[in-house]
Amino acid sequence: MTESETRALLQAVAEGSSSVEDAVMKLKMAPYDDIDIARLDTHRGLRQGIGEVIYGAGKTPEQIDRIAHALWKDGQRTILITRMTQEAADALTKDIPFTYYSDAHAGVVGSMIEPDCEGTVLVITGGTSDIPVAEEAAITAETLGNKVERVFDVGVAGIHRLLSNTDSIMAANVIIAIAGMEGALASVVGGLADCPVIAVPTSVGYGTAFGGVTALLSMLNSCASGVSVVNIDNGFGAGYLASMINHKGVAV
């Protein structure tokens, strides 16, 4: 939507010839920003409540830099970049505030949003090898304005480690359970928690783990109620969904 079109729309609202609801709908459906290498959905924050996120995998450092600067210029003040390499982070032009989180392979342009809801998102992993996916989930949830607690390396091979964190499990508003191998962690957590559990299978494991497929199928077949499953290694999707649930004020 051009400046003149926006002014005309606002003038129509001021004059009473357009309702506020109609104006908001038109703004939500406003055109994208075409910068040749990408078509940026600059009104996504208005439409969905969360601005566009940059998926870094497959993009060159120069492309990430251009997209991030275009979103910043358009007024987006918190920009999450997932699957970002150290090379891309080093190449980002530092005329805008930027923080790189190496464990999560993620970057944030601008600043983290202060937690704006009361609930806690608990991120649990089966093993230390699952931490990169867990950190992607945690950084995503934090970037979207959630309080996040981390409990790592509490897999079912030593289940007493998990049970020693029962208080955190019971207090959480949403839990993200992340595991590879056979993926049993999600079912155990689902059997302990009275809140939604988002299961994330990881590609960690030996041959018949099939790059996370075994954990994925195990989690999909969980007998615990209230367990949902995202794709293999999809920490971002889990963190995003957890934020949506947490901001809906799910009571525990």
From TrEMBL:
Domain called PurE: residue spans: 119-251
Any GO BP: 'de novo' IMP biosynthetic process
Pfam families on file: AIRC (PF00731)
Highest taxon above the source species: Bacteria
Molecular-function annotations in GO: hydrolase activity
Xref: InterPro entries: P2CMN_synthase_LarB (IPR039476), PurE_dom (IPR000031)
SUPFAM superfamilies found in the cross-reference section: N5-CAIR mutase (phosphoribosylaminoimidazole carboxylase, PurE)
UniProt-recorded name of the protein: Nickel pincer cofactor biosynthesis protein LarB
